[in-house]
Amino acid sequence: MFIWGLITPMVLLTELVTGRAINKRRACDSIDNGYHCHEDISRSWGPYTPYFSLESDYRSAKIDKKCKVTFAQVLSRHGARYPTEGAGKGIKTTVDKIQAQAISYSKKTAFIKAFNYTLGADELTTFGEIEMYNSGIKFYRRYKSLANKCNPFIRASSQQRVIDSGSQFTQGFIDEKTKKTGNPVSTFPPPVIIYEGEEFNNTLDHGACREFEDGKYSNLGSDAQATYAAKFTNRIVKRLNMDIPGANISSGDVINLMSLCPYYTVVEPTGDPLPKFCDIFSDEEFKNYNYYLTLGKYYGYGPGNPLGPAQGIGFVNELIARLTGSTVNDSTSTNTTLDGNPATFPLGRKLYADFSHDNSMVSVFSALNLFEGTHDLSKDHSGHGHKFNVAELVPFASRMYVEKLKCEGEKEELVRILINDRVMELKGCDEKKYGACSIGDFVEMLKWARNGGNWNECW
Ligand SMILES: *[C@@H]1O[C@H](CO)[C@@H](O)[C@H](O)[C@H]1NC(C)=O
Ligand SMILES: *[C@@H]1O[C@H](CO)[C@@H](O)[C@H](O)[C@H]1NC(C)=O
Ligand SMILES: *[C@@H]1O[C@H](CO)[C@@H](O)[C@H](O)[C@H]1NC(C)=O
Ligand SMILES: *[C@@H]1O[C@H](CO)[C@@H](O)[C@H](O)[C@H]1NC(C)=O
Ligand SMILES: *[C@@H]1O[C@H](CO)[C@@H](O)[C@H](O)[C@H]1NC(C)=O
Asked: Per-residue pLDDT averaged across 365-369, rounded?
């Protein structure tokens, strides 16, 4: 597979993507638009939603003819993965319980009787690898005026699926660049790996802030979810216990069964067909499931948690350093050994790519003020249509682009932010054009993060 350092373009992965076995069936991931199958429910799977391109209704995502991109940073989540080990155990317990206790099954649930849970844990699925490979192609294409001349500087948080996502992305980028320029990319430096864990400072994965990890703010997300789960699963619990008498299905079992719909979708290399678990629940029930998952992120890592946005400060300060070409000024989660060294934190590059997790990305978006002025999400009833929707913000292989534009008629360079191709409204800075603010205004707007926010409340 892919090896950092020396690169042979068009290696194995290309065969995987274009291979006959996959081409024969319908491939649901596409380079431009991401996942485009079963839209009625596939966009209601919270963080298990496969990446799809969002409509940009606020401002056009296109790069205007009057502008040139001078800088681009992508912050990406890893691609689709198997359930985490803990989630997998919970799912298996639910399945085992049903099979042990069920007296009978309805027609729609009959398949559960002989169902065998065999998914792996934690790592990317083949579909997830393809998502990331396609993401690298897309990044090259969007920024090709820069990408033809240079390669992105790459960092990844240390979990294997995140590193693997970075290498798939890089391979996609390289293959597309080689194809378009005719010049094989011969070397590519290995990524900077940032260790995960409470003893480490890591801007791509939270862990070092004690009150947030283990203290008074550590259960806000799961508490909000528990409140809402008791309500939205109520009718489903009753129905399933009629369909499968004896099984004694609980609210938690419902959540586990629902998750098997996305999980068994993304183990198909094509992302198709949908497994039978998807048929046991209605579109509306999946919308509520998505809301349930959204609550976990909002109160766990986002604006609903007093220390959620603080977990994103370190990355924001790194971003400011890269945008302005000045050294990192941060006393939160940055690793000064890494960020003080030009080999591991070079300034003056035009392309950067960082690989991370959904939770930390939610914190980064929050530290960037992207949700300022939105009302808190209700824990009692679903608030569909709220700007904070996890399926849109941090699906598998989701990505934020921060781009700097040099535009005719603008003295200063402009900055704007796109999440999954949607131009985000920047709160607290003066929009010039294209959904962008001047670089000066943009940095000014981020003063909460520049001043360290409320990181001091971590202890
Ligand atoms: C379930 O799958 C595992 C792994 O593939 C296999 O070893 C086992 O025999 C299967 N069990 C049943 C009941 O089919
Ligand atoms: C900072 O990064 C270096 C290099 O990876 C590592 O050895 C060190 O343990 C890290 N320190 C912290 C506090 O994260
Ligand atoms: C059903 O499950 C609950 C726990 O979720 C347990 O307290 C209860 O005893 C179970 N009822 C039966 C009939 O097994
Ligand atoms: C890690 O972060 C803490 C808190 O900001 C800081 O005091 C410490 O110097 C940092 N360590 C490194 C290696 O950056
Ligand atoms: C770094 O940030 C702190 C807090 O905002 C500020 O007081 C200090 O002047 C900054 N240092 C530099 C060198 O910009």
From this structure: 98
Ligand nearest to the CA of 196: 2
User: Which ligand 4 atom is nearest residue 331's CA?
Assistant: 5
The pLDDT value given to residue 11: 36
Q: Calculate how far, in angstroms, residue 246's C-alpha sits from the geometric centre of ligand 3.
A: 10
Q: What are the percentages of helix, strand and coil residues in the chain, rounded to 5?
A: 45, 15, 45
Homologous superfamily (CATH) for 29-82+124-213+286-458? Phosphoglycerate mutase-like (3.40.50.1240)
Greater confidence, 12 or 377?
Answer: 377
Question: Is the shortest distance between the CB of 337 and ligand 4 below 6 Å?
Answer: yes
Where are the alpha helices (H) located in 112-209, listed in sequence order? 126-142, 144-147, 160-181
**Is 32 annotated in the active site?**
no
Question: Which ligand is in closest contact with the Cα of 335?
Answer: 4
Check residue 300 and give its pLDDT: 98
Q: 289: which 2 tokens?
A: 């499931």
Query: Is pTM, for the whole model, over 0.90?
Result: yes
* In the chain, domain spans: 29-82+124-213+286-458
Q: Is the CB of residue 183 less than 8 Å from the CB of residue 147?
A: no
Provide DSSP, 257-298. Answer: HHHHHHHHHTTSTT--S--GGGGGS-HHHHHHHHHHHHHHHH
Q: Is residue 10's pLDDT more than 50?
A: no
Structure confidence at residue 183 (pLDDT) = 87
Whole-number pLDDT of residue 23? 46
Residue of 203, 336, 451, 457 best suited for mutating to test ligand 4, as the one with most atoms within 8 Å of CB: 336
